[in-house]
Amino acid sequence: MTTTEMPRAHAEEPAPAPAAKSPHLRQLDLYRVLTFAVVIFIHVLVATTYPEDVPAGAFEVPLHFARAAFFALTTFVLMFQYRSRPLQAKKFWRRRVPLVAVPYVVWSVLYWAYSMLTSPQPVGPLSGQLRALLIEIGTGTAWYHLYFLLVTLQVYLLFPLLLKLVGLIRRHPLPVLAVSGVVQIAVMVFLSYPPESLDYGVLSRFFVTLLPYQFYSVLGMVTAVHLETVHDWLRGHVRWVVAALVAGLVITETGYFLSVRHGVWPESAADAYRPYLLPWIVAAVCGLYLAGSRWAEGRQRAGRFVSWAVDRSFAVFLSHPLALALLAPLISFVGDRYGAPWTTFVIYPLTVALTFAIVTVLRRVPWSKALTGRARVRASA
Q1: Phi, psi angles (nearest 5°) of residue 14
Q2: Where are the beta strands (DSSP E) in the chain?
Q3: Exposed/middle/buried for 297, CB within 10 Å: 0-12, 13-18, 19+?
Q4: What is the sign, positive or negative, of the torsion defined by CA atoms of 138, 142, 147, 152?
Q5: Transmembrane residues, as ranges (predicted)?
Q6: What is the pLDDT of residues 177-209, one digit of tens each?
Q7: Of 64, 170, 287, 330, which is most buried, counting CB atoms within 10 Å of its CB?
Q8: CA angle at residue 286 from 283 to 292, to 5 degrees?
Q9: HSE on the CB side for 70, CA within 13 Å?
Q10: pLDDT tens, position by position, 341-373
């Protein structure tokens, strides 16, 4: 049996004993590493190009699948672990929430302090800055990527309730996905084409709630409940997945260029909430899982590095914007001389390297768990 093969789960079979642990799904390791690599790249791309750059926007828009892949993975892992065993809500919250909440607060403070220290303008009285910090922690806006942790905490808080849907998902997976998909399309249309009377400050609050990402979370849950069936279907229909990837990409790029042609700012036309992204996102998440499955069933090239990177993935996510910010002078230097896309090609590997250097240090300090969500690594490791 390979790392991606599991015993069949039929409705008439008794559920596994509550104490049984879910098997490790090796294909998710590559899934996770590739997703983080794309997330870092899209942030580098935005930092090294201009908002009005149409080609850069065209390259950026399909990369937003990584955001959806994150949320799908989060709920997938939770549902797969608890799909056939009971969950005690208080115990679950005590174990899960601090692993995200503590680093979230710590990094919010760190990025808040970094913003003040590097601000070219006077920052004002400390009392006002502390009030701003509290607001940023409450709204996930201390830095541009921290909203993800705030949404993850919402998933953790709601998961005991979501787990009650496992029976419905087991009996009617496609209707559940269809209803969630309709809601997702409505939300994306609303966020992309809001009423002119709606203040952007109100609209921006939606971005740090679970609502704009609920379909991806439901997709993860449905896949976890029916993993054996979904896995076999994807492995047996590779050509369909490839065709869906091509079709989804064509739809996404067509939607982007039509939006730009009709006067939408390239940066806005390339944001993650455009409805024309949805077919591509679903296909890309399926393709990412399929790529991980083929890798797990094969020779698992670079397997040791993948395992090493997975162990540090959360810390990489937390710290890579700091690495990118520290490289800002170099971005200006290279950009002024060579422009795009050369600046992106130079800065991306440097950002990855600096991020891993930062993570290596953070994993060795006594307060590693508060900074990375993981226990301290000894110097000999």
Answers
A1: -70, 150
A2: none
A3: middle
A4: negative
A5: 30-50, 65-84, 96-114, 142-162, 174-194, 206-227, 239-258, 273-292, 313-334, 340-362
A6: 999 999 999 999 999 999 888 887 788 888 899
A7: 64
A8: 140
A9: 22
A10: 999 999 999 999 999 999 999 999 999 999 999
Length of the chain: 381
Can you tell me the distance from the alpha carbon of 184 to that of 204, in angstroms, rounded to the nearest whole number?
17
DSSP SS3 for 118: helix
Residues 313, 271: Cα–Cα separation, whole Å: 24
Supply the pLDDT for residue 157: 96
DSSP-assigned letters across all residues of 81-97: HHTTS---HHHHHHHHH
| Over residues 10-31, mean pLDDT | 65
pTM: 0.89
**CA distance linking residue 338 with residue 46, whole number of Å:** 16
86: burial class by Cβ within 10 Å (0-12, 13-18, 19+)?
A: exposed
* Tokens at 37, concatenated: 């690599």
